[in-house]
Amino acid sequence: VGTHGAVSAQVEDAWGGTHMVKFQRAAITPVALSIEIKALAGYESAVEDRIREALVSHISGLGIGQELVVPALYGLCYAQDPGPTPTFAITLLSASARGASTAGVLPAAWNQRLTTQPSMIQILVH
């Protein structure tokens, strides 16, 4: 069976024979997130760090070619507010990558892996 991709390497099989194997590395695609929050009674800024950590963990867990469903991030953000009643309300949540921004679904090509880091997550509190 032939292999395909932009990267190639010689590998040795179990019997000592060498074969050229071609493969494709995933293209890393950074994602920036913008979140606007309205602070409610009991709001503490520590929730912002928890939100960032949860979002980084979620996006880092996406597989190669797996899209980011931005509306699903609302629940993840609200889960970082431990109290019995919400202390904030999200008024805007959007993701951007490759020059495009969306509040819907951020696609990833078959060879792309979406990633982010805390510094790429902007949280604006009103």
Number of strands: 10
Report, as a whole number of angstroms, the end-to-end distance: 59 Å
The spatial strand order of the largest sheet comes to 7-6-4-10
Mean pLDDT, to the nearest integer, reads 94
Tell me what portion of residues adopts beta-strand conformation: 35-45%
> What composes the largest sheet?
4 strands, mixed
Oligomeric grouping of the chains? single chain
Please work out how many helical segments DSSP would assign: 2
* Model regions low in confidence, pLDDT < 50 over at least 5 residues: none
Give the topology string: H per helix, E per strand. Answer: EEEEHEHEEEEE
Radius of gyration: 20 Å
Structural class: alpha/beta
The helix content, as a percent range, equals 10-25%
**Morphology:** elongated
Protein described:
The chain is of the alpha/beta class and 126 residues long. Helices cover 17% and strands 40% of the residues. The strands form 4 sheets. The protein has a 4-stranded mixed β-sheet with strand order 7-6-4-10, with helices on one face. A two-stranded antiparallel ribbon has the order 1-2. The longest helix is centred in the middle third of the chain and has 15 residues. It is elongated, with a radius of gyration of 20 Å. The relative contact order is 0.29. The mean pLDDT is 94.
